[in-house]
Write a structure and sequence with these properties.
binds zinc ion; 287 residues
């Protein structure tokens, strides 16, 4: 009986080590994207653990999905109620900027998080390398117009959208499907034209209020306060948004620890669509 005790202790220790390794190496976000890692056996850790998913280039090169058909030409202004998955969509407006965008990209990469960048056409034209980096890292790119006008003529709206779409297509190989209206204005020519052209107009469900001079701590708190699965978080990576870049690591750290993972808007829309289809199937099965 006595001889069993050290053996049991050894098994427990090995199991704990295996579990700890699993936590370290398999962040949930990319667990499904990489070569499947064998489930650690309770009695023995894997002989040669795979490197953490965060460093796998294959995990970053998966293209962002297209926007599901049902959401095209729609305004997205609230999350789907009771959505059960702990997914969050961080969105960054007004970039790219040579000072801010690299900081944002670095923080996102550190936490294996994906986000959506609503770029201004004029900034994408001036700093194309950052848009390319965003795409290479698996982030989604949307249009935020060319010059951020608060109102335009009908012709002006078409020009704002088309100029930006051409630049984005040249840099990413894809026409943008997402549009974030400047100032969140959906009634003007710009947003209405975008909807007619089939863009999904993406508003937000949580604002970090990072356009105000409130400092990184408050910006972070605004995001961390009470997120729900499926929330869309408004942030900025445009010129001067140092506080937003400083707040981001804290947001990522605390919300990752709380079990959230960070996805692009098209991924979130796909998850919503899948979930709604499942709900329908359930309600049909139990009339
Ligand atoms: Zn803006």
């Amino acid at each position: 009986m006595r001889r069993l005790v050290p053996a049991v202790a050894l098994i427990v220790a090995l199991a704990a080590a295996a579990g700890a390794w699993q936590l370290l190496s398999a962040r949930p976000h990319h667990a499904d994207r990489t070569v499947p890692v064998a489930t650690p056996q309770p009695t023995a850790p894997p002989a040669r653990p795979a490197p953490p998913a965060a460093t796998s280039p294959a995990a970053e090169s998966k293209p962002v999905p297209y926007v599901p058909r049902a959401w095209r030409g729609q305004i997205l202004r609230k999350r789907v109620r009771h959505f059960p998955e702990k997914l969050l969509a961080l969105t960054f407006d007004d970039g790219p900027d040579p000072k801010i965008t690299p900081l944002v990209l670095k923080a996102l990469a550190q936490y294996n998080a994906h986000a959506t960048f609503f770029v201004l056409g004029k900034c994408a034209k001036t700093y194309p390398q950052f848009v390319k980096q965003e795409v290479a890292a698996g982030h989604a790119i949307g249009s935020h117009s060319y010059s951020h006008p608060s109102s335009t003529s009908a012709e002006g709206a078409v020009a704002e959208l088309d100029k930006t779409a051409t630049i984005i297509q040249q840099l990413t190989g894809r026409k943008p499907q997402l549009f974030r209206p400047p100032y969140g204005i959906t009634k003007g020519n710009l947003c209405q034209t975008a909807l007619k052209e089939g863009y999904t107009a993406v508003l937000w469900t949580i604002s970090t209020a990072d356009s105000n001079p409130i400092g990184p701590e408050v910006i972070a708190r605004n995001a961390i306060h009470t997120p729900n699965g499926g929330d869309i978080v408004l942030m900025h990576d445009g010129k001067g948004h140092v506080a937003s870049a400083k707040a981001l690591p804290q947001i990522l750290r605390e919300l990752t620890a709380a079990g959230f993972r960070f996805v692009t808007i098209p991924e979130l829309l796909q998850a919503w669509t899948d979930w709604q289809a499942k709900q329908k199937a359930v309600s049909h099965a139990h009339p």
